[in-house]
Amino acid sequence: ARLAIEAISKLDRSSAWRGELAQLATHADRDVRNTAVEQLGEAADKKHIGVLLTALEHDDWSTRQTAVSA
Questions:
Q1: By CB atoms within 10 Å of each CB, which of 15, 18, 20, 37 scores lowest?
Q2: Using 50, 70 and 90 to split pLDDT, how confident is the model at 45?
Q3: Burial of 8 (0-12, 13-18, 19+ CB in 10 A)
């Protein structure tokens, strides 16, 4: 899933895709969630800063770490 999300993020920089990433940032699968958080951070779209802030409070330490790095 990570490679697919990264590839789509490189090809599609639309706000619609960033909206999809915002939804994936709450996914149950850690790899999907963390990759979405990472890609939203790289997109640097202020519209989704709330998603990154929410990820900072996630129960999973790896998601919090990813949000800090994003």
A1: 15
A2: confident
A3: middle
> What would the mean pLDDT of 7-11 be, rounded to a whole number?
93
**Mean pLDDT confidence for 23-38:** 97
Q: What end-to-end distance do the CA atoms of the chain give, in Å? A: 19
Long-range pairs for 63-68 at CB < 8 Å and ≥24 separation? 63/30, 63/33, 63/34, 63/37, 66/34, 66/37, 66/38, 67/37, 67/41
- Written as one letter, the residue type at 24 is L
In this prediction the pTM is 0.91
Q: Distance of CA 54 to CAs 22, 40, 66, 67, Å?
A: 11, 13, 12, 9
CB 14 within 8 A of CB 45: no
